[in-house]
Design brief:
Blueprint (H helix, E strand, L loop, with lengths): L1 E2 L3 E6 L2 E6 L4 E5 L1 H8 L7 H9 L3 E2 L5 H13 L3 E7 L6 E3 L13 H14 L5 E7 L7 H17 L4 E7 L6 H9 L2 E7 L4 H7 E3 L6 H14 L5 E8 L4 H15 L5 E7 L18 H6 L25 E4 L4 E3 L13 E2 L5 H6 L9 H4 L4 H7 L12 H17 L4
Parallel strand pairs: 6-8, 6-14, 8-9, 9-10, 10-12, 12-13
Antiparallel strand pairs: 1-5, 2-3, 3-4, 7-11, 14-15, 15-16
Helix pairs in contact: 4-5, 5-6
Length: about 425
């Protein structure tokens, strides 16, 4: 037996932590076992040994971990969840500073409903379950159609004995309690809503088309949802960070914890603003940061990533049965390709699922050095899957620094 290539070792105060980047399992060990494992000495208690084997921190001598991981990873890409992101609208009620979208205005309608229902019913036998993600633009500008279609999809999946779940990325401005209750009846349980810092900074970045601020309306919606809806849902508040608003993000985290901290249906995610193209981002190009900046400023998200399956974090753009569909029924591999005619895979009205799958770009490409690197599992789920992975002189140091910060945050629950 031998120690795994994918073991990551970290000491946080008096805690000795090992995270395996292939199994994405984490264990706390006493100092003696920790240093023995670090030095590839496997002479310790049989029960601890078995636990480490179970978590893939110890593997067989002749095991090719790289090929086994890549085989499991490729299998995960074939998961039989029919995962469709529907661009309910291609326009928005906001004018965000960093928005990359500049689409021809379109919106789903009753004709779209008929087409998507026909497409899903024709292909539902390929899948074990169906997941719909409502996206935009701002999807709630098509609320009536979403509510109707959600009920139809729920009934369709029940008819075929397939589980049906749904989520939505929304700015939250139109998410009233009444609308939320209707959406929940249609199995729309998962929401991502962006709030970029406290009121002043958020209103600077995320304002209405008429220039008015949006923070108060969104925050009041969230408070009412918390107070008046007592059933299950999950809302992730996403805070997009630049070097210009990180101090406000720290204040937001405190306000969030004071307001929603005891309600585990609410979580907060900190994410660096990225240049996805368009003219708006140029105003912020001198303030763009990366994950390491977040770690340095202790902007750690409140929901668990350490301990989650690494395969659950794979971008849908590479998954076999995942697609983006616009209001015209055109199908894409990624939402960033919307209305780019060169990136259309086909149309739900004329193409079979098999044709759409064949038209996808389905190979991860990476440098030879990346393949043998212990951090390959992390890069494959965190880097854009439509770009080739490239080895750099600093990529390993940056990943190590970020993992140590994440493990430090994870370890606090054992204080």
């Amino acid at each position: 037996m031998k120690t795994s290539l994918y073991n990551f070792y970290s000491k946080e105060g008096n805690k000795n932590i090992i995270l395996n980047l292939s199994s994405w399992k984490t264990v706390l060990l006493n100092e003696d076992v920790y240093f023995k494992l670090l030095n590839k000495n496997l002479d310790f208690d049989i029960n601890i040994f078995k636990q480490l084997v179970k978590n893939r921190m110890i593997v067989e001598n002749n095991e090719n971990e790289i090929e086994i991981f890549l085989a499991k990873f490729n299998k995960a890409l074939q998961t039989k969840t029919l995962n469709i992101t529907i661009m309910a609208t291609t326009f928005c009620n906001f004018q965000c500073t960093y928005c990359y979208e500049n689409y021809i205005p379109e919106k789903i309608d009753n004709i779209f409903c008929l087409k998507i229902m026909k497409f899903i019913e024709s292909n539902i036998h390929h899948s074990l379950k169906v997941y719909i993600d409502w996206f935009g633009g701002e999807p709630l500008l098509a609320f009536d159609v979403i509510a109707k279609l959600s009920e139809l999809l729920k009934k369709l999946c029940a008819k075929h004995g397939k589980p049906y779940l749904s989520g939505m990325t929304t700015n939250g401005y139109l998410l009233s309690v009444d609308k939320m209750k209707i959406l929940l009846k249609g199995n729309v349980y998962f929401y991502q809503i962006t709030i970029d810092g406290t009121k002043e900074k958020h209103n600077e970045y995320r304002k209405l088309k008429n220039g008015k601020g949006t923070f108060d309306t969104i925050w009041n919606n969230l408070i009412l949802i918390k107070k008046q809806i007592h059933t299950y849902f999950e809302i992730v508040l996403r805070c997009n960070i630049t070097s210009n608003n990180f101090s406000e993000a720290l204040k937001l985290k405190k306000i969030f914890l004071d307001t929603f901290g005891e309600d585990n249906r609410f979580k907060i995610l900190f994410y660096p603003v990225k240049d996805w193209g368009g003219e708006n981002i140029k105003e912020l190009e001198n303030y763009l940061i990366n994950y390491d900046f977040l770690n340095d400023k202790h902007l750690i998200s409140t929901f668990e990533t350490i301990g989650d399956s690494i395969y659950s974090r794979i971008c849908n753009a590479k998954c076999k049965y995942s697609f983006i569909v616009d209001p015209k029924g055109n199908v894409y591999q990624c939402s960033h390709y919307n209305q780019n005619v060169e990136k259309i895979l086909g149309n739900i009205d004329t193409c079979s699922l098999e044709q759409l799958i064949l038209n996808k770009t389905d190979k991860y490409l990476f440098d030879r050095k990346c393949k043998s690197c212990q951090y390959l599992p992390l890069c494959l789920v965190e880097e854009c899957p439509l770009k080739n992975l490239k080895f750099t002189l600093t990529c390993k140091q940056n990943i190590e620094k970020r993992l140590k910060m994440q493990l430090k945050a994870w370890s606090k629950k054992y204080d």
